[in-house]
């Protein structure tokens, strides 16, 4: 999970420390949320045989593939997301520059 | 400062929902393997692009409907 840290550069020193702390807290929270979401997703998709208390071999393999696949999708989506955001910010900066020129 | 944190939380939430939606729409189930196939990769790229367009449209509509 890559957080936009560039925005932080403009903040005054005393705010940077508290922002970093908040950021860390948010990252922990996001990791835990991801953990729960992924477990639920893979359980729903892979586990359906309740004749035994233990996971069957194929259920175990399915969970592993499920996690791997989700992480891959997450990574690729994150990449595109970052691209869009950078593009959007570039366009916004351009628009702002144009607007200030006209004044 | 609080605004920056809220904005950041919004971005994180947006990304999480984008990932979840694209995974639901693009991942072949039952899971054959962990690596993304070429089809799945293209699907994810297009899914992200469309999701972004929806974000823009909804943003516009919400902004104008006051």
TrEMBL record, chain A:
Topological relation to the membrane, as annotated: Peripheral membrane protein
Coiled coil: none
Pfam families: zf-Tim10_DDP
Subcellular locations according to the entry: Mitochondrion inner membrane
Keyword annotations from UniProtKB, A to Z: Chaperone, Disulfide bond, Membrane, Metal-binding, Mitochondrion, Mitochondrion inner membrane, Protein transport, Translocation, Transport, Zinc
Annotated ranges, domain Tim10-like: 22-83
Domain of life: Eukaryota
Main location as per UniProt: mitochondrion
Matches recorded under Gene3D superfamilies: Mitochondrial import inner membrane translocase subunit tim13 like domains (1.10.287.810)
Domain notes: The twin CX3C motif contains 4 conserved Cys residues that form 2 disulfide bonds in the mitochondrial intermembrane space.
Function: Mitochondrial intermembrane chaperone that participates in the import and insertion of some multi-pass transmembrane proteins into the mitochondrial inner membrane. Also required for the transfer of beta-barrel precursors from the TOM complex to the sorting and assembly machinery (SAM complex) of the outer membrane. Acts as a chaperone-like protein that protects the hydrophobic precursors from aggregation and guide them through the mitochondrial intermembrane space.
Record-stated family: Belongs to the small Tim family.
Subunit-structure text: Heterohexamer.
Protein known as: Mitochondrial import inner membrane translocase subunit
Species, as recorded: Tetradesmus obliquus (Green alga)
Automatic annotation (TrEMBL), chain B:
Keyword set, alphabetical order: Chaperone, Disulfide bond, Membrane, Metal-binding, Mitochondrion, Mitochondrion inner membrane, Protein transport, Translocation, Transport, Zinc
An annotated GO cellular component: mitochondrial inner membrane
Gene3D superfamilies per UniProt: Mitochondrial import inner membrane translocase subunit tim13 like domains
Biological process, per Gene Ontology: protein insertion into mitochondrial inner membrane; protein transport
GO MF annotation, one: metal ion binding
Family stated for the protein in its record: Belongs to the small Tim family.
Function in brief: Mitochondrial intermembrane chaperone that participates in the import and insertion of some multi-pass transmembrane proteins into the mitochondrial inner membrane. Also required for the transfer of beta-barrel precursors from the TOM complex to the sorting and assembly machinery (SAM complex) of the outer membrane. Acts as a chaperone-like protein that protects the hydrophobic precursors from aggregation and guide them through the mitochondrial intermembrane space.
Domain remarks: The twin CX3C motif contains 4 conserved Cys residues that form 2 disulfide bonds in the mitochondrial intermembrane space.
Name the record gives this protein: Mitochondrial import inner membrane translocase subunit
């Amino acid at each position: 999970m890559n957080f936009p840290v560039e925005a932080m550069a403009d903040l005054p020193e005393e705010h940077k420390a508290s922002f970093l702390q908040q950021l860390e807290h948010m990252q922990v929270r996001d990791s835990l949320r991801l953990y729960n979401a992924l477990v639920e997703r893979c359980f729903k998709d892979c586990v359906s045989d309740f004749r035994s208390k233990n996971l069957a071999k194929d259920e175990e393999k399915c969970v592993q593939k499920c996690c791997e696949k989700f992480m891959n999708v997450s990574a690729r989506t994150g990449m595109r997301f970052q691209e869009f955001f950078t593009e959007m910010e570039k366009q916004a900066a351009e628009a702002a520059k144009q607007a200030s020129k006209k004044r | 400062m609080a605004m920056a944190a809220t904005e950041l939380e919004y971005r994180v939430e947006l990304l999480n929902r984008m990932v979840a939606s694209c995974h639901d729409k693009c991942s072949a189930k039952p899971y054959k393997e962990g690596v993304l196939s070429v089809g799945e990769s293209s699907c994810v790229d297009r899914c992200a692009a469309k999701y972004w367009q929806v974000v823009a449209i909804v943003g516009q509509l919400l902004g104008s409907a006051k």
